[in-house]
Amino acid sequence: MALEKEWKEFHTVDLSKGWEVPPGYPSGIQQQILAGKLDEKNKRGSRTRHLRFDPGVYTTAPFEHDYWEEVYLLSGDLIVGVDENGNGGTSFQPGTYACRPPGTPHGPFKSVNGCMLVEIHYYDPEVN
Q1: DSSP class of residue 128?
Q2: Residue 126 pLDDT
Q3: d(C-alpha 93, C-alpha 86), whole Å
């Protein structure tokens, strides 16, 4: 099965609209889907999205999912590995990247000044 995603030629992305809180995230974290659809129920598809953190927002538990994830920090700061109160962890600056196989625990996360990420999520079409 091939990876399916709509064709979108270069266009200006409107950062003022299309934001929503992803399921399971606090209200200070929003996503903007750029392309694709990830079908977690049927374990197929892919999506590319922006994910942004408002200043001071943090998650309280690690994330783990059954799809691949690639993350690029576009702007701001991101702290990885904070505790349930948002303390500790390792700080990263723009220009940093992560690639996580399915089943990899990651986080919790915090941003002191806010940040924006580009994330690509996908199921391996050869497996599903």
Answers
A1: -
A2: 79
A3: 17
